[in-house]
Amino acid sequence: MPGKETLPVRGAQGDLLRLVAAGHAESRAELARLSGLAASSVSLRVEELIGSGLLVEEGAGTSRGGRRPRRLRLSPRAGLLAVADLGAHHARLGLLDLSGTPLVVEERPCDIMDGPEATIDWMAGAFEDMLAAHAPPGVPLRGVGTGVPGPVDPATGRVVAPSRMPGWNNFPVAERLAAHFGLPALVENDANLMAAGEARAWPGCETLMVLKAGSGIGCGVIVNGALHRGRGAAGDISHVRVRSDSSVTCSCGHDDCLEAYASGAALMSVLAEQGIEVRRPADVVALVEDGVPEATALVRNAGRLIGEVLTVLVNFVNPDAIVIGGGLSAAEPLISAIRAAVYERCLPLATRDLEISTTRSGPDAALLGAGSLLLDAVLA
Amino acid sequence: MPGKETLPVRGAQGDLLRLVAAGHAESRAELARLSGLAASSVSLRVEELIGSGLLVEEGAGTSRGGRRPRRLRLSPRAGLLAVADLGAHHARLGLLDLSGTPLVVEERPCDIMDGPEATIDWMAGAFEDMLAAHAPPGVPLRGVGTGVPGPVDPATGRVVAPSRMPGWNNFPVAERLAAHFGLPALVENDANLMAAGEARAWPGCETLMVLKAGSGIGCGVIVNGALHRGRGAAGDISHVRVRSDSSVTCSCGHDDCLEAYASGAALMSVLAEQGIEVRRPADVVALVEDGVPEATALVRNAGRLIGEVLTVLVNFVNPDAIVIGGGLSAAEPLISAIRAAVYERCLPLATRDLEISTTRSGPDAALLGAGSLLLDAVLA
DNA sequence: CGGCTTGTCTTCGATTTCGAAGGAAGTTGG
DNA sequence: CCAACTTCCTTCGAAATCGAAGACAAGCCG
Question: What rounded mean pLDDT belongs to chain A?
Fold first, then answer.
């Protein structure tokens, strides 16, 4: 009976379970090092966790010069997480086991303009479909989480002043989800989720900036290994004023915001003015790959503007890496223009070991991040 | 015999001592809440710490509705810290007890241009003078720390690529100090020390940006209550490109750095060109207070430029407060120009509860910060 | 004043954790 | 191949920690 009841989240067992689930530890020895507990205590608790079916021993790890460790994993039967990443016109949805490994990921069309009530109902229905189709019998759902394309107040789980989500302002999304499933629920900005997901793919990097370049421009920040939320808007770079000859007024009311020049939406509207039909950021990438000069020039300029904004932040934050994801990140000229700007203008101390590259987690980064953060809520 | 021997830094006693020393806890009950230990265990360990003369009970605190707590303090006889803040032409030096309370603070002229060897010898001599004059007999020195006006590699305690400290590059300052006194030693950038010092004066603020506006422009960042060091240059804002009509080349080799327009040094050189004699940032403040229009306009412009740079960082980091210190911070027009720029251009979510004001810890902020950080080294 | 509530601190048996010692299972290097 | 070393994991008595119960000391309030 693998933990149909509540999970052991308190005390030493909970600590050890968290370390394994978060992917920080894979063996009793590692658990001892990271938890600060004595090796003997770790063995005792791990034996109990295996006994209750939450952990499983799975083969041997690689030796570090001595006896090989016996690898520990979270049992796939310990529970499931249902996660989603809401976009403007479609959503990715997934089921993960408690170690964050996806069982199934789907993309379905939806429309957040229908408002929060309808969208949450739709999402709940989609989750139930997926559970019916893919969840092994007897494995309980432990938590639900979703990303939204707007700022979220970390204290309340409410969406706050979202520019692309009319009708959602101050709606208690997390509360509703929690009530519907009777489970811990998580709501977080989509770029923040991407950052949390990437963080697991960049071991050794304590400080990370993860840029989401899609229709909008978002950024998530990992500081000291943890997501930095600030007041819910942390990581915002879209409304930074950029140096420009012309003058464009942004939806926020100010002039010359980065978003008005370098977001996917801005690029698409310029292309449309030139009579080139594009519907999504991926179409822009396709134009660039086809060598359409107008598109390439636009994308390169967007990269330069983004890079100039990043220089300020790189000097200030000194990240270990900048990760670029989102629909536009597949466009090479964007990446190279960002790299050029950052390496040219930043302090040598800040760029000496700085890596700038595209996502390692791919399109599921946000779902993985939702799993990672949701785990903290489930095991707490 | 109040702990002439080594301090108990390991295990529960160490944890409790740290909590009291850092100012987080003042009673057994608070210690129990913050340490996670059972109240009974806390009482046992506290009794031992009092027995060994490290803690003292000092009167009663204020009731929170029930019995009044018996206040705990670090014994003034538990030990001393010697701390310094090196500037270009003068240094502040102080002796603190282990709870960070200053016994004595002095300002002495010195010249870091004499190079690291001479300066460290000078500092050691000054510390020994002060100890002889002010240290109660039998109270041991537990650690030594200093701030320097340049970046410091957090891993090695070496000064790295300092623009205003020729001869210091890569010099192992911390190592030398530690060797000279045979004690834990700390070396840190001066703005970072200011930030660590201010952090203790802003309880409830998890994320803080502390600007040091003096001859140069520095900034220290507190994220989640801890100093964010990055690669040693974190918090740098002096080499951000600003929007400007003219074009000035900075010492870093790039054009139009903030430092070249808004630092105290830059203001002084402009005033000098106009035939107005000034020798230190305080003289600029005096001119502003005397209503000299050239000085006021210059300072206000500097504030605007600094504020525009801060807008980017406020949107990104979402600090709870921006604290402005350093020699120029006494100039009202600087503060109000910074406020105007930040409140005008930042996202409402980021500025809603943002406080922008001058230092609460005053001119000793850096010394207090050195004490705070040094404590971690001493109790570790 | 005397209950009532809230919060602080101690006592003591039950439980958990520690740490030293040792066995198990590898790697490294003659 | 064997000896020396490393790392991983378990065993078992000693020591620290927990937590429930209660004494103690206030503030609150009629």
Answer: 93
Round to whole Å and give the CA distance between A291 and A278: 15
Task: For residue A59, say whether its CB is under 7 Å from any atom of strand C.
Answer: no
Indicate if B236 and B331 belong to the same structural domain: yes
User: Other CB atoms closer than 10 Å to residue A169's CB: what's the count?
Assistant: 13
User: Could you tell me if residue A320 is inside a domain?
Assistant: yes
Largest CA distance in chain B: 71
On whether both B97 and B189 belong to a single domain, the answer is yes
| B296 domain residue, yes or no | yes
Please tell me if residue A105 touches chain B, with a CB cutoff of 8 Å: no
* Contact with chain A for residue B232, Cβ under 8 A: yes
Question: Which residues 6+ apart lie within 8 Å of A159 measured at CB?
Answer: A116, A148, A150, A151, A152, A153, A165, A168, A169, A170, A171, A173, A187
Same domain (yes/no): B58, B123: no
Calpha distance B116→A35 (Å, rounded): 41
User: Do both B56 and B152 map to the same domain?
Assistant: no
Residues B314 and B224 reside in one and the same domain = yes
Nearest Cβ partner for B349 among A233, A240, A311 = A233
A149: domain CATH number is 3.30.420.40
Q: What is the pLDDT of residues A308-337, one digit of tens each?
A: 999 999 999 999 999 999 999 999 999 999
Q: What is the tens place of the pLDDT at every residue in B162-178?
A: 888 889 999 999 999 99
- Number of domains composing chain B: 3
User: Which residue among B207, B237, B254 sits closest to A316, beta carbon to beta carbon?
Assistant: B237
CA distance B351 to chain A (A): 9
B4 domain-assigned: no
Q: Which of A54, A77, A100 is the last residue of a domain?
A: A77
pLDDT value for B112: 93
Whether residue B183 lies within 8 A of chain A, CB to CB, comes out as no
Q: How many CA atoms lie within 13 A of B43 on its CB side?
A: 6
Summarised one tens digit per residue, pLDDT across range B325-371 is 999 999 999 999 999 999 999 999 999 999 999 999 999 999 999 99
Are A217 and A313 in the same domain?
Answer: yes
Nearest by CB to residue A350, choosing from B207, B231, B315, is B231
Give the domain CATH number at B21.
1.10.10.10
B223 and B111 together in one domain:
no
B182 is near strand D: CB distance < 7 Å: no
B5's CB contacts (< 8 A; 6+ apart) are none
User: Is A4 inside a domain boundary?
Assistant: no
Contact call for B231 and A349, based on CB within 8 A: yes
Q: Is B151 on the interface with A (CB under 8 A)?
A: yes
Task: Please identify, among A53, A77, A101, the residue that sits at the C-terminal boundary of a domain.
Answer: A77
How far A232 CA sits from the closest chain B CA (Å)? Answer: 8
Residue nearest to nucleotide D28 (CA to C1'): B65
| Cβ contact, residue pair A316, B236, below 8 Å | yes
**In which domain, by residue range, is A189 found?**
79-195+365-378
Output the six-digit token pair for B375.
Answer: 């404590």
Q: Which nucleotides of chain C does any protein CB come within 7 A of?
A: 5-12, 16-21, 23-28
Mean pLDDT within B287-294: 95
Which chain B residue is nearest to residue A206, measuring alpha carbons? B230
The closest of A305, A219, A208 to A257, measured between CA atoms, is A305
Q: Give me the sheet containing A80-86, strands edge to edge.
A: A102-109, A90-97, A80-86, A141-148, A185-189
Spell out which residues of chain B touch residue A216, defining contact as CB-CB under 8 Å: none
